[in-house]
Amino acid sequence: MMTRCTRRSGFSTAELLVASTVSLIGFAALYAVFFAQQKALAVQGAYAQVQTTARSVLDLMAREIRMASYDPTGAALPAAPGPACPGVRRGLADATPTPGRSQQGLNGRRAAAGPAPPL
After folding, report:
1. Which phi and psi angles does 108 have, rounded to 5°?
2. In this structure, is residue 105 part of a structural domain?
3. 109 within some domain
4. Three-state SS across 53-99?
5. Per-residue pLDDT in tens (0 to 9) along the chain, 119 residues
6. Which of 1, 35, 71, 108 has fewest C-beta within 10 Å?
7. Residue 11 within a domain
């Protein structure tokens, strides 16, 4: 008599359940990583936008402060008599941490155009 050894090919139900569970756990971990990266990218974009705006504002302020002593005629602003910088034309007449006062000759005449406006 000859006996046959039969082997089954395929997966059992328990093996399929374990494989499905492991796959779902892996997909959940990938989704969590993706969501965290997406959130970090949004925060980084907002930070870059704030930094660009601050840089633009500071550049505008620096340009305006530099141009405070601009005199197209060369004679509208009086020279500083002070001991610190004699002979230098003062565009910033007064500057403190909160208010400031500047002079600028924009009317093209030989005198400053009225009283200096506050900053």
Report:
1. 80, 0
2. no
3. no
4. HHHHHHHHHHHHHHHHHCCCCCCCCCECCCCCCCCCECCEEEECCCC
5. 556 667 777 888 999 999 999 999 999 999 999 999 999 999 999 999 999 999 999 988 888 777 766 666 666 666 666 666 666 666 666 667 777 666 655 555 544 445 555 55
6. 1
7. no
